[in-house]
Amino acid sequence: MTALDRISFEFFPPKSAEAETKLAKVRDRLDAARPEFYSVTYGAGGSTRDRTLETVLAIREEGRNVAPHLSMGSDDNGTVRALLDRYRNAGVDRIVALRGDVPSGMGGSGSVHFARELVELLRHHAGDDFTIEVACYPEVHPDARSPESDLAHFQDKVKAGADEAITQFFYNADAYFDFVDRATAAGVRVPIIPGVMPITNVEGLLRFADGCGAEIPRWIRLRLEQYRDDRESLHAFGLDVVTDLCRRLLDGGAPGFHFYTMNQSKASLELLRRLGHGLD
Question: What domains sit in the chain, N to C, each tagged with a CATH number?
């Protein structure tokens, strides 16, 4: 199995002081994996803008590398530039640039609607001050007209200046390898990092998958239903499934992993131990 050299962990901004304290302890535990960076999500249309900023600055003040997610669903360019300046002044040097969705029920629209345009704004405003991560979808973005159009959008983001890509989570390694092969054939040369979602909660996983278009193979769905009320069996099954997935990805040349932690540490660290990644 190939050595695991690149690890990152994703959080969502906590909603209370108690949750902030818990997340700080999670970061302390995840530090044992020596991650390249932590990332913090950004709600649709900037709905968590302030909490994302506060969480990012807190992580940065701890001396950790952190990458804020950024989208522009209802923000104008000036708002985004000001936010970039705050991040840059705090020593943040990486951004996860995403398509700007407007939250349901909110009117108005921002001046940037696609991640390509946000990448262009980032490069124009900050030059090479930020490493830019973008998203990609091995199983095709749910809004894409076709796999070809989805790949074309990804190419556009890379041409605009993206440095790396992080995938939506998936449980079919062949989908990842097929996407990487097609992207490479189309001239894409940036690293494509698999996004990994540990299996710890049936309802949450099914909700996320249905919302983002990620496929959960039927045999996995059936087992999840079987273990819905059996946490111990669910934990063991999920760990086996995701460990095998990660091993296949590493053996096939994946450059590392981005873990969707759901603000927890246990499942990600268990996976890394199984993969032979030494923890400090």
Answer: 7-274 (3.20.20.220)
